[in-house]
Amino acid sequence: MQVDARTVKKHFEKSMEDYDDNAVVQRLIADNLVEELSKIKKYFPSVLELGSGTGLLTRVFSSKCKFDSYTANDLTERAKFYLDKILPRYDFICGNAEKIKTNSSFDLIISNAMFQWFSDLENAVCKHFYSMLKAGGVLAFTTFSNDNFEEVRSITGLSLEYKSFDEISKIISKKYEILYSKNFDYVMKFKTPLELLAHMKHTGVNSLGVKKWSIVQVKDFCEKYRNLYPEISLTYSPVIFIVQKK
Ligand SMILES: C[S@@+](CC[C@H](N)C(=O)[O-])C[C@H]1O[C@@H](n2cnc3c(N)ncnc32)[C@H](O)[C@@H]1O
User: Could you list the pLDDT tens digit for every one of the 246 residues in the chain?
Assistant: First the structure.
């Protein structure tokens, strides 16, 4: 299932205060993305960041790469509170990245841990963002592939409609040359299933079901989790792509 942008926004607004302390994997892949990008190029005159959130990626990108103008986007205006602390100057476009409109074009479009919520990845990447990139412009992003949170899916049946690494590669290759790509699993372990649920909530990734769970549902989830995954493990499956407009 895909979750509508309003639900994603609501969950993120609630999790922003706790996000940086809990976003272990998101931080790892933001670092990884910028490290690989800076090996390819370190200066991008105009940059558009999609889904800037609490500025995890903004912070690492702006410390390692150079740019003249920075435009940031997020579903929530609250992202500006964090951007203000990182960037002396920036433009902000509030709204769903799949639909934002701008008259500018960019040398780099960058995004961390956000594309998994898109309702139509191919349209977003191959049409919308493609049209906002200058000739030879670079799109650098991370997202998650279909092994992501496999434990939660096996117990609840709830999951975003993640694409596999090969499916994403195939979509991207229609309009871009792949400069760098990687997919790996990262397993986190928790003391209890409740701690795991809190981790998901604090990173805003509890946008899996529309309805709030009852106490009975939570108890049932915890019992099944302990039985099936006694180590209380949670698998992330990040994907990193750095691609250039053909
Ligand atoms: C997991 S956080 C990632 C934040 C940040 N990029 C980072 O590196 O940690 C996802 C952010 O993307 C935003 N977001 C989710 N879907 C979006 C969409 N369709 N358009 C714009 N922003 C979106 C959320 O509001 C949230 O702030």
Answer: 566 788 888 888 888 999 999 999 999 999 999 999 999 999 999 999 999 999 999 999 999 999 999 999 999 999 999 999 999 999 999 999 999 999 999 999 999 999 998 999 999 999 999 999 999 999 999 999 999 999 999 998 888 889 999 999 999 999 999 999 999 999 999 999 999 999 998 998 765 555 678 899 899 999 999 999 999 999 999 999 999 999
Mutate which of 49, 58, 114, 117 to test ligand 1's pocket (most atoms within 8 Å of Cβ)?
114
Q: What does DSSP assign to residue 109? A: E
> If you measure from the C-alpha of residue 74 to the centroid of ligand 1, how many angstroms do you get, rounded to a whole number?
6
Q: Rounded distance, CA 167 to CA 174, Å?
A: 11
Cα distance between residue 87 and residue 49, in whole Å = 12
Residue whose structure tokens are 């996000």: 19
**Sign of the four-CA dihedral 73, 74, 75, 80:** negative
**Complete domains list, the chain, with CATH:** 5-149+159-189+235-245 (3.40.50.150)
